[in-house]
Design a protein that fits this description.
about 200 residues; alpha+beta; 5-stranded antiparallel beta sheet; 1 helix; about 20% helix; about 35% strand; elongated
């Protein structure tokens, strides 16, 4: 009789403590569910943001290269957009959904968690750029008449075309340096259908 009573007490204690453990686990589950919406609020807040700090609209480019023919949109003064990719001179901003483009980093400020991996893909990977590839060692000129020599350029490189005349392409060697090359000294490739005409 005593043995049966003891067994009943033990079974009751097991059920009691089991119920407490069950309640604890349910509570932990609820706490976890409550944290998720909080993180959903915090993460966008901490995302890398780019703010235009100039007193005017700035261009958004279809590739990380500043050229008029690559302009696809504008970013207004003090407008802030989320950054998802970074290069040394440009940042990729999302305009809506997956749609976005590149802005010059020097024309704005970055805030938030901007420790993003550097995008080092070559410019030739961007489908919206037109390139000039010399087929021989050729010359870069300062004028459309191809008279004033700047320097010699290598046939192993691809140079961004930003304009053209009847006989020459206007190319950029870097963001700070450019000039004109004889069209017959190389080949154009890429998105070359909308190259603007420059004054001769």
């Amino acid at each position: 009789m005593a043995f049966g009573f003891a067994r009943t007490v033990i079974a009751g204690m097991i059920l009691f403590f089991g119920g407490i453990l069950f309640i604890i686990f349910i509570s932990l589950g609820n706490n976890t569910a409550q944290v998720d919406p909080l993180m959903a609020t915090i993460e966008p807040f901490l995302a890398c943001k780019y703010t235009n700090t100039t007193p005017q609209d700035i261009p958004i480019y279809s590739a990380p290269f500043s050229a008029e023919m690559l302009e696809m949109d504008i970013l207004g003064d003090s407008v802030q957009l989320t950054v998802t990719k970074m290069r040394e001179t440009h940042a990729f901003v999302t305009i809506r959904g997956n749609y976005g483009g590149w802005v010059e980093r020097d024309l704005g400020v970055l805030t938030g968690n901007c420790d993003l991996p550097l995008d080092e893909s070559p410019l030739t990977d961007f489908a919206t750029i037109c390139f000039f590839r010399p087929t021989e060692q050729t010359t870069l000129y300062a004028d459309t008449a191809l008279q004033s020599v700047v320097e010699s350029i290598k046939p192993t490189e691809a140079y961004v075309i930003i304009g053209q005349t009847e006989n020459a392409y206007q190319i950029r060697i870097s963001s700070l340096m450019g000039g004109y090359v004889d069209k017959t000294k190389g080949l154009a490739s890429g998105a070359c259908g909308l190259i603007p005409i420059v004054e001769s």
